Amino acid sequence: MKYLISGGGTGGHIFPAVSIANALRELDPKAEILFVGALGRMEMERVPQAGYEIVGLPVQGFDRKRIWRNFRVLWNMMRSMRMVRKIIRDFRPDVGVGVGGYASGAAMKQAAKMGVPILLQEQNGFAGVTNKLLKNDASVICVAYEGMERFFPKEKIILTGNPVRQNLLTGTRDDARTYFKEECGFTLDPTRKTVLIIGGSLGARTINQAIGAGLKDLSGLNVIWQTGKNYFENILSTLPQTDERITLSRESVPPAHGARGGGAPFGTAALEGQSYALITPFLSRMDLAYAAADVVISRAGASSISELCLLGKPAILVPSPNVAEDHQTHNAMALVRKDAAILVRDIEAHEKLVPTLLQTVEDEALCERLHTNILTLAQADSARRIAEEVIKLAKNK
Questions:
Q1: If DSSP states are collapsed to H, E and C, what string results for the chain?
Q2: Are residues 116 and 215 in the same domain?
Q3: Phi, psi for 267 (deg, rounded to 5)
Q4: How far is CA 111 from CA 66, 102, 142, 166, 267, in A?
Q5: Res 232: pLDDT
Q6: Domain tally for the chain?
Q7: Which domain holds residue 308?
Q8: How confident is the model at residue 21 (pLDDT cuts 50, 70, 90)?
Q9: In the beta sheet, which residues pair with residue 279?
Q10: Residues 30-42: tens digit of each pLDDT
Q11: CATH number for the domain harbouring residue 335
């Protein structure tokens, strides 16, 4: 069987696409898999790193502010459609899989025109533009949230959840204590609750600013704070180093554990001789960071939420306002409505995030309720279940 997989632009699209490809390869070791992405986007680097061939299209999104630039966008779309036609003629896929993004629109539309059955995977609680445009061309649409009938034909929908990193399930608290002490020089005090603050590999400005302003108020907790590489240096320079209770150290995680093999710097904030916060631009062992955490502060991207559900972590979600159609708020509200997470809006984070964290982590009954409810929303083995649907389409064809 031959499978054409298309999508990208962000890690939220790329990771599910690669996970589905890996699952297809496990179920069908002789399968031939070809990716189609957008030139200049991160999939052109990440997909080959995962061991798959990818072809790039000159496709790009519409410029809503500078309308005159869209003549070039339309020209590149036509070029992309011609390129996809040739790719499909040469590769002859049995099924096309679209995960969202500009390239997915061109590739899946052309595949459907040429008689190739297609499966769409929608990661978010508010469907993306590309998948909404392709809904009538799709044979199957795999979704991560209930209630997606408002976007897609009900008879095509299968609730599968989003693929997540399976190695996240392997870490234990004891492993986390050992790792953070030996590799980062940071001791997780077993008498304190642990909070994990994450904003993605690039970071989340509002979360970082709110935590930076209220860091001293968190001295009764163990704090693991991933700032993202874009904000780390600035955070270290703005922390109140004149306060004698807080000191900063600059170390390096060994290359084997660092980003790009080069070592990731980190800082520790110490209160009266006892470090209570690890500040790092990058966490290579997310499994152990999650294992250590009693409460997690996170953006509300589809992959992050799926991980939190699978791990059953009480979470405070701060949706990014800088995403298409505010889909992160829709993702977060799907949990909030089930009493499975707490929402702090980005515009309110400076005022409310730290107080909400302190109130949550001290309320054991609340944490237990969040833990129980978020677990009920978990979808296990999502990549394999999606791959099984892809193979069904190929066999039916």
A1: CEEEEECCCCHHHHHHHHHHHHHHHHHCCCCEEEEEEECCCCHHHHHHHCCCEEEEECCCCCCCCCHHHHHHHHHHHHHHHHHHHHHHHHHCCCEEEECCCHHHHHHHHHHHHCCCCEEEEECCCCCCHHHHHCCCCCCEEEECCCCHHHCCCHHHEEECCCCCCHHHHCCCHHHHHHHHHHHHCCCCCCCCCEEEECCCCCCCHHHHHHHHHHHHHHCCCEEEEECCCCCHHHHHHHCCCCCCCCCCCCEECCHHHCHHHCCCEEEEEEECCEEEEEEECCCCCHHHHHHHCCEEEECCCHHHHHHHHHHCCCEEECCCCCCHHHHHHHHHHHHHCCCCCEECCHHHHHHHHHHHHHHHHHCHHHHHHHHHHHHCCCCCCHHHHHHHHHHHHHHHC
A2: no
A3: -130, 155
A4: 31, 15, 18, 31, 50
A5: 83
A6: 2
A7: 166-375
A8: very high
A9: 225, 267
A10: 999 999 999 988 8
A11: 3.40.50.2000
Is residue 230 domain-shared with residue 257, that is, in the same domain? yes
CA distance 105 to 377: 29
Residue 327 has pLDDT above 90, yes or no: no
User: pTM to 2 decimals?
Assistant: 0.81
Amino acid at 264: A
Same domain? 157 vs 179: no
Residue pair 310/380 in contact (Cβ under 8 Å)? The answer is yes
Can you give the length of the chain in residues? 397
Residues 112, 139 contacting (CB under 8 angstroms): no
Residues 153 and 197 occupy one common structural domain: no
Sign of CA pseudo-dihedral 176, 50, 312, 268: positive
State yes or no: pLDDT of 138 exceeds 50: yes
Q: Is the pLDDT of residue 249 over 90?
A: no
For position 248, what pLDDT does the model report?
A: 45
Q: pLDDT tens digit string along 150-202?
A: 999 999 999 999 988 767 888 899 999 999 988 888 889 999 999 999 986 66
**Cβ atoms of 246 and 238 closer than 8 Å:** no
Q: Which of 123, 171, 200, 165 is nearest to 22 (CA)?
A: 165
The Cα 64–Cα 67 span in angstroms is 6
Residue 232 sits in the same domain as residue 328 = yes
Q: Is the pLDDT of residue 364 over 90?
A: yes
